[in-house]
Protein backbone atom coordinates (compact mmCIF):
# COMPACT_ATOMS: atom_id res chain seq x y z
CA UNK A 1 0.00 0.00 0.00
CA UNK A 2 1.30 3.45 -0.93
CA UNK A 3 1.97 5.66 2.09
CA UNK A 4 0.99 9.23 1.27
CA UNK A 5 3.92 11.47 2.18
CA UNK A 6 3.90 15.00 3.50
CA UNK A 7 4.85 17.68 0.99
CA UNK A 8 4.32 20.49 3.45
CA UNK A 9 5.32 24.10 2.85
CA UNK A 10 4.96 27.28 4.86
CA UNK A 11 2.56 30.10 3.94
CA UNK A 12 3.52 33.76 4.35
CA UNK A 13 1.40 36.89 3.92
CA UNK A 14 3.27 40.19 3.64
CA UNK A 15 0.98 43.21 4.09
CA UNK A 16 -1.76 41.63 2.00
CA UNK A 17 -4.85 43.71 1.20
CA UNK A 18 -7.91 42.66 -0.78
CA UNK A 19 -10.46 45.23 -1.89
CA UNK A 20 -13.73 44.81 -3.75
CA UNK A 21 -14.39 48.32 -4.98
CA UNK A 22 -14.79 50.52 -1.92
CA UNK A 23 -15.02 47.49 0.42
CA UNK A 24 -11.82 46.26 2.10
CA UNK A 25 -12.20 42.53 2.79
CA UNK A 26 -8.62 42.01 4.06
CA UNK A 27 -6.62 44.96 5.33
CA UNK A 28 -2.79 44.79 5.32
CA UNK A 29 -2.58 41.32 6.87
CA UNK A 30 0.83 39.83 7.67
CA UNK A 31 1.17 36.30 9.02
CA UNK A 32 3.40 33.25 8.80
CA UNK A 33 2.11 29.67 8.90
CA UNK A 34 4.83 27.12 9.63
CA UNK A 35 5.16 24.03 7.48
CA UNK A 36 3.48 21.00 9.05
CA UNK A 37 1.18 23.00 11.34
CA UNK A 38 -2.60 23.32 11.48
CA UNK A 39 -3.55 26.98 11.71
CA UNK A 40 -7.15 28.11 12.03
CA UNK A 41 -8.54 31.41 10.75
CA UNK A 42 -11.31 32.19 13.21
CA UNK A 43 -13.82 35.00 13.26
CA UNK A 44 -17.40 36.11 12.61
CA UNK A 45 -19.01 36.29 9.18
CA UNK A 46 -17.51 39.06 7.08
CA UNK A 47 -14.24 39.33 9.02
CA UNK A 48 -12.03 38.35 6.04
CA UNK A 49 -11.10 34.77 6.93
CA UNK A 50 -12.59 33.07 3.85
CA UNK A 51 -11.15 35.74 1.53
CA UNK A 52 -7.74 35.08 3.12
CA UNK A 53 -8.14 31.34 2.49
CA UNK A 54 -9.21 31.92 -1.11
CA UNK A 55 -6.13 34.08 -1.71
CA UNK A 56 -3.92 31.20 -0.55
CA UNK A 57 -5.76 28.94 -2.99
CA UNK A 58 -5.40 31.41 -5.86
CA UNK A 59 -9.17 31.80 -6.19
CA UNK A 60 -8.79 35.49 -5.34
CA UNK A 61 -5.88 37.78 -6.16
CA UNK A 62 -4.69 40.36 -3.60
CA UNK A 63 -4.99 44.05 -4.36
CA UNK A 64 -1.56 44.61 -2.81
CA UNK A 65 1.06 42.73 -0.81
CA UNK A 66 2.82 39.38 -1.34
CA UNK A 67 1.87 35.74 -0.74
CA UNK A 68 4.54 33.04 -0.53
CA UNK A 69 4.14 29.28 -0.37
CA UNK A 70 7.47 27.99 0.83
CA UNK A 71 10.02 30.23 -0.87
CA UNK A 72 7.90 30.73 -3.99
CA UNK A 73 6.08 34.01 -4.60
CA UNK A 74 2.61 32.88 -5.72
CA UNK A 75 0.92 36.29 -5.45
CA UNK A 76 -0.13 36.34 -9.12
CA UNK A 77 -0.16 32.61 -9.84
CA UNK A 78 -3.57 31.15 -10.77
CA UNK A 79 -5.03 28.32 -8.70
CA UNK A 80 -4.04 25.72 -11.31
CA UNK A 81 -0.35 26.58 -10.86
CA UNK A 82 -0.32 26.28 -7.05
CA UNK A 83 0.33 23.05 -5.19
CA UNK A 84 -2.72 23.55 -2.98
CA UNK A 85 -5.88 21.49 -2.39
CA UNK A 86 -9.12 22.78 -0.90
CA UNK A 87 -11.95 21.00 0.93
CA UNK A 88 -15.12 23.02 0.53
CA UNK A 89 -18.04 23.44 2.92
CA UNK A 90 -20.33 21.77 0.35
CA UNK A 91 -17.85 18.85 -0.18
CA UNK A 92 -18.28 19.37 -3.99
CA UNK A 93 -18.43 15.63 -4.77
CA UNK A 94 -19.53 14.53 -8.24
CA UNK A 95 -22.93 12.88 -7.66
CA UNK A 96 -22.67 10.59 -10.72
CA UNK A 97 -19.25 9.23 -9.67
CA UNK A 98 -18.70 6.60 -7.00
CA UNK A 99 -16.32 7.08 -4.08
CA UNK A 100 -13.17 5.76 -5.73
CA UNK A 101 -13.87 7.79 -8.89
CA UNK A 102 -14.32 10.96 -6.84
CA UNK A 103 -11.08 10.37 -4.94
CA UNK A 104 -9.19 9.54 -8.16
CA UNK A 105 -10.49 12.52 -10.14
CA UNK A 106 -7.64 14.97 -9.52
CA UNK A 107 -5.00 12.27 -9.97
CA UNK A 108 -6.13 11.70 -13.56
CA UNK A 109 -4.78 15.14 -14.45
CA UNK A 110 -1.53 14.89 -12.46
CA UNK A 111 0.57 12.64 -14.70
CA UNK A 112 0.08 9.35 -12.82
CA UNK A 113 -0.52 6.04 -14.59
CA UNK A 114 -3.56 3.85 -13.85
CA UNK A 115 -1.69 1.69 -11.32
CA UNK A 116 -0.41 4.71 -9.39
CA UNK A 117 -3.86 6.31 -9.42
CA UNK A 118 -5.46 3.15 -8.03
CA UNK A 119 -2.81 2.78 -5.32
CA UNK A 120 -2.98 6.40 -4.22
CA UNK A 121 -6.78 6.44 -4.16
CA UNK A 122 -6.85 3.26 -2.09
CA UNK A 123 -4.30 4.75 0.32
CA UNK A 124 -6.41 7.90 0.65
CA UNK A 125 -9.54 5.92 1.49
CA UNK A 126 -7.61 3.86 4.01
CA UNK A 127 -6.39 7.04 5.73
CA UNK A 128 -9.95 8.32 6.19
CA UNK A 129 -11.38 4.94 7.18
CA UNK A 130 -13.48 4.33 4.07
CA UNK A 131 -11.89 1.16 2.65
CA UNK A 132 -14.80 -0.94 1.37
CA UNK A 133 -16.87 2.06 0.29
CA UNK A 134 -15.24 2.39 -3.14
CA UNK A 135 -18.35 1.61 -5.23
CA UNK A 136 -20.87 3.70 -3.30
CA UNK A 137 -22.31 6.90 -4.70
CA UNK A 138 -22.21 10.12 -2.59
CA UNK A 139 -26.00 9.85 -2.13
CA UNK A 140 -25.45 6.51 -0.37
CA UNK A 141 -23.11 8.04 2.22
CA UNK A 142 -23.74 9.94 5.44
CA UNK A 143 -22.66 13.57 5.76
CA UNK A 144 -19.58 12.54 7.72
CA UNK A 145 -18.62 9.95 5.13
CA UNK A 146 -19.03 12.47 2.31
CA UNK A 147 -16.74 14.84 4.19
CA UNK A 148 -14.11 12.12 4.49
CA UNK A 149 -14.30 11.40 0.76
CA UNK A 150 -13.65 15.10 0.11
CA UNK A 151 -10.66 14.97 2.47
CA UNK A 152 -9.27 11.84 0.78
CA UNK A 153 -9.64 13.46 -2.65
CA UNK A 154 -7.54 16.40 -1.45
CA UNK A 155 -4.96 14.26 0.39
CA UNK A 156 -4.08 11.98 -2.51
CA UNK A 157 -2.71 14.98 -4.44
CA UNK A 158 -0.11 15.46 -1.68
CA UNK A 159 -0.47 19.25 -1.72
CA UNK A 160 2.00 21.61 -0.14
CA UNK A 161 -0.95 23.24 1.65
CA UNK A 162 -4.36 21.74 2.43
CA UNK A 163 -7.21 24.22 2.91
CA UNK A 164 -10.50 23.67 4.73
CA UNK A 165 -13.39 26.13 4.35
CA UNK A 166 -15.94 25.62 7.15
CA UNK A 167 -15.64 21.84 6.62
CA UNK A 168 -17.91 20.68 9.45
CA UNK A 169 -20.74 23.22 9.33
CA UNK A 170 -23.15 20.75 7.67
CA UNK A 171 -22.68 18.07 10.35
CA UNK A 172 -24.47 17.60 13.67
CA UNK A 173 -22.62 18.36 16.91
CA UNK A 174 -21.59 14.80 17.79
CA UNK A 175 -20.38 14.05 14.26
CA UNK A 176 -18.49 17.37 14.14
CA UNK A 177 -16.47 16.33 17.19
CA UNK A 178 -15.56 12.99 15.63
CA UNK A 179 -14.68 14.27 12.16
CA UNK A 180 -12.61 17.20 13.45
CA UNK A 181 -10.53 14.73 15.47
CA UNK A 182 -10.09 12.55 12.38
CA UNK A 183 -8.87 15.58 10.42
CA UNK A 184 -6.46 16.47 13.22
CA UNK A 185 -5.15 12.89 13.45
CA UNK A 186 -4.48 12.74 9.69
CA UNK A 187 -2.80 16.15 9.72
CA UNK A 188 -0.52 15.12 12.58
CA UNK A 189 0.26 11.71 11.11
CA UNK A 190 1.24 13.09 7.70
CA UNK A 191 2.80 16.36 8.88
CA UNK A 192 0.56 18.41 6.60
CA UNK A 193 0.36 22.17 6.44
CA UNK A 194 -3.34 22.89 6.98
CA UNK A 195 -5.15 26.22 6.96
CA UNK A 196 -8.61 25.79 8.43
CA UNK A 197 -11.43 28.34 8.40
CA UNK A 198 -14.25 28.28 10.93
CA UNK A 199 -16.47 30.58 12.96
CA UNK A 200 -16.78 27.93 15.70
CA UNK A 201 -14.38 28.77 18.56
CA UNK A 202 -14.68 25.31 20.17
CA UNK A 203 -13.70 23.70 16.86
CA UNK A 204 -10.73 26.04 16.55
CA UNK A 205 -9.54 25.33 20.09
CA UNK A 206 -9.81 21.57 19.52
CA UNK A 207 -7.86 21.20 16.27
CA UNK A 208 -5.33 24.02 16.04
CA UNK A 209 -1.63 24.45 16.66
CA UNK A 210 -2.25 28.18 16.28
CA UNK A 211 -5.33 30.35 15.88
CA UNK A 212 -5.53 33.60 13.94
CA UNK A 213 -8.52 35.59 15.19
CA UNK A 214 -9.80 38.02 12.57
CA UNK A 215 -12.15 40.97 12.98
CA UNK A 216 -13.05 43.77 10.57
CA UNK A 217 -10.59 42.57 7.90
CA UNK A 218 -7.57 42.56 10.24
CA UNK A 219 -5.90 40.19 12.70
CA UNK A 220 -7.17 40.85 16.22
CA UNK A 221 -4.73 38.37 17.81
CA UNK A 222 -2.86 35.20 16.93
CA UNK A 223 -1.29 32.53 19.09
CA UNK A 224 -1.66 29.06 20.58
CA UNK A 225 -5.21 28.10 21.65
CA UNK A 226 -4.39 28.23 25.38
CA UNK A 227 -2.65 31.58 24.98
CA UNK A 228 -5.67 33.18 23.31
CA UNK A 229 -8.10 31.72 25.85
CA UNK A 230 -6.06 32.61 28.93
CA UNK A 231 -4.55 35.90 27.74
CA UNK A 232 -6.89 37.65 25.28
CA UNK A 233 -5.48 40.90 23.93
CA UNK A 234 -8.78 42.76 23.84
CA UNK A 235 -12.51 42.55 24.52
CA UNK A 236 -13.33 41.12 21.10
CA UNK A 237 -10.93 38.18 21.45
CA UNK A 238 -11.99 37.56 25.05
CA UNK A 239 -15.64 37.33 24.06
CA UNK A 240 -15.08 35.38 20.83
CA UNK A 241 -12.72 32.73 22.22
CA UNK A 242 -15.06 31.11 24.72
CA UNK A 243 -17.68 32.72 26.94
CA UNK A 244 -16.46 35.72 28.92
CA UNK A 245 -17.81 38.23 31.44
CA UNK A 246 -16.37 41.71 30.98
CA UNK A 247 -16.45 44.06 33.96
CA UNK A 248 -15.53 47.72 34.19
CA UNK A 249 -13.00 47.87 37.01
CA UNK A 250 -10.39 50.18 38.50
CA UNK A 251 -6.66 49.63 38.84
CA UNK A 252 -5.88 51.31 42.17
CA UNK A 253 -2.12 50.94 41.82
CA UNK A 254 0.59 48.98 40.03
CA UNK A 255 3.73 47.71 41.73
CA UNK A 256 6.39 45.60 39.99
CA UNK A 257 3.97 44.56 37.26
CA UNK A 258 1.19 43.57 39.65
CA UNK A 259 -2.09 45.52 39.62
CA UNK A 260 -4.36 46.03 42.62
CA UNK A 261 -7.83 45.70 41.04
CA UNK A 262 -11.08 46.94 42.55
CA UNK A 263 -14.54 45.82 41.45
CA UNK A 264 -17.11 46.85 44.05
CA UNK A 265 -16.17 44.86 47.17
CA UNK A 266 -13.90 42.54 45.15
CA UNK A 267 -10.14 43.05 45.49
CA UNK A 268 -7.72 41.18 43.24
CA UNK A 269 -4.00 41.21 42.52
CA UNK A 270 -3.38 40.41 38.86
CA UNK A 271 -0.64 40.81 36.24
CA UNK A 272 -0.89 44.40 35.02
CA UNK A 273 -0.12 43.44 31.40
CA UNK A 274 1.34 46.87 30.73
CA UNK A 275 -1.67 48.76 32.10
CA UNK A 276 -1.39 51.68 34.50
CA UNK A 277 -3.53 53.08 37.28
CA UNK A 278 -7.08 53.99 36.24
CA UNK A 279 -10.03 52.46 34.42
CA UNK A 280 -9.70 48.99 32.87
CA UNK A 281 -11.74 45.94 32.04
CA UNK A 282 -11.66 42.59 33.79
CA UNK A 283 -12.22 39.37 31.82
CA UNK A 284 -13.60 36.49 33.88
CA UNK A 285 -14.68 33.14 32.43
CA UNK A 286 -18.06 31.76 33.61
CA UNK A 287 -16.50 28.63 35.12
CA UNK A 288 -14.05 30.71 37.18
CA UNK A 289 -16.75 32.36 39.29
CA UNK A 290 -17.94 30.58 42.44
CA UNK A 291 -21.36 31.03 44.03
CA UNK A 292 -21.17 31.70 47.79
CA UNK A 293 -23.39 33.14 50.50
CA UNK A 294 -24.64 36.65 49.70
CA UNK A 295 -22.96 38.19 52.76
CA UNK A 296 -19.51 36.65 52.12
CA UNK A 297 -16.78 39.25 52.59
CA UNK A 298 -15.03 40.21 49.36
CA UNK A 299 -17.73 38.66 47.14
CA UNK A 300 -19.81 40.57 44.61
CA UNK A 301 -23.47 40.45 45.70
CA UNK A 302 -26.15 39.53 43.22
CA UNK A 303 -29.52 37.90 42.60
CA UNK A 304 -30.15 34.79 40.52
CA UNK A 305 -32.26 35.76 37.51
CA UNK A 306 -32.05 32.50 35.61
CA UNK A 307 -30.99 28.95 36.52
CA UNK A 308 -30.71 26.33 33.76
CA UNK A 309 -29.78 22.67 34.14
CA UNK A 310 -28.03 21.45 30.95
CA UNK A 311 -26.89 17.98 32.03
CA UNK A 312 -23.20 18.16 32.88
CA UNK A 313 -23.44 21.58 34.51
CA UNK A 314 -25.79 24.35 35.58
CA UNK A 315 -25.87 27.80 33.93
CA UNK A 316 -26.81 30.91 35.89
CA UNK A 317 -27.51 34.49 34.98
CA UNK A 318 -26.85 36.68 38.03
CA UNK A 319 -28.03 40.30 38.29
CA UNK A 320 -25.46 42.58 39.93
CA UNK A 321 -24.76 46.30 40.18
CA UNK A 322 -22.13 45.70 37.47
CA UNK A 323 -24.54 44.11 35.00
CA UNK A 324 -25.67 40.56 34.35
CA UNK A 325 -23.04 37.89 35.00
CA UNK A 326 -23.00 34.46 33.34
CA UNK A 327 -21.81 31.67 35.64
CA UNK A 328 -21.45 27.91 35.10
CA UNK A 329 -21.20 25.36 37.90
CA UNK A 330 -20.49 21.63 37.91
CA UNK A 331 -22.52 21.29 41.12
CA UNK A 332 -25.75 20.19 39.43
CA UNK A 333 -27.46 19.69 42.81
CA UNK A 334 -27.16 23.39 43.71
CA UNK A 335 -29.71 24.94 41.36
CA UNK A 336 -30.22 28.28 43.21
CA UNK A 337 -33.75 29.19 42.17
CA UNK A 338 -34.44 32.60 40.56
CA UNK A 339 -34.68 35.33 43.18
CA UNK A 340 -32.02 33.76 45.43
CA UNK A 341 -29.44 36.20 46.80
CA UNK A 342 -25.87 34.97 46.23
CA UNK A 343 -22.30 36.21 46.28
CA UNK A 344 -19.87 35.89 43.37
CA UNK A 345 -16.39 34.81 44.44
CA UNK A 346 -13.53 35.56 42.03
CA UNK A 347 -10.40 33.35 41.96
CA UNK A 348 -6.94 34.75 42.63
CA UNK A 349 -5.73 33.35 39.29
CA UNK A 350 -7.62 33.24 36.01
CA UNK A 351 -9.20 36.70 35.58
CA UNK A 352 -7.34 38.87 33.06
CA UNK A 353 -7.01 42.62 32.70
CA UNK A 354 -7.42 44.34 29.35
CA UNK A 355 -7.50 48.02 28.49
CA UNK A 356 -10.74 49.85 29.12
Q: What class do helices, strands and sheet pairing give?
A: alpha+beta
Summed over residues and divided by their number, the pLDDT gives a mean of 92
**Backbone shape:** globular
Helix and strand run = EEEHEEEHHHEHEHEEHHEEEEEEEEEE
**Sheet with the most strands: spatial strand order:** 6-7-8-3-9-10
End-to-end distance:
59 Å
What is the rounded Rg? 24 Å
- Give the DSSP E fraction (strand runs of 2 or more residues): 35-45%
Give the tally of β-strands.
Answer: 20
Query: Helical proportion?
Result: 10-25%
Major sheet details: 6 strands, mixed
Number of helices: 8
Contiguous low-pLDDT stretches (5 residues minimum) are none
Structural summary, described in words:
- The protein is an alpha+beta fold.
- It contains eight helices and 20 strands.
- The protein has helices at 49-57, 99-104, 114-127, 143-155, 173-190, 201-207, 225-230, 235-240; strands at residues 11-20, 23-33, 38-42, 64-69, 72-73, 84-87, 161-165, 194-198, 210-215, 218-223, 245-255, 258-263, 266-271, 278-284, 290-292, 300-309, 314-320, 323-329, 341-345, 352-355.
- The strands form four sheets. It has a six-stranded mixed sheet, sandwiched between helices. It has a five-stranded antiparallel sheet with strand order 13-12-11-14-20. A five-stranded antiparallel sheet has the order 15-19-16-17-18, with no helix packed on it.
- The mean pLDDT is 92.
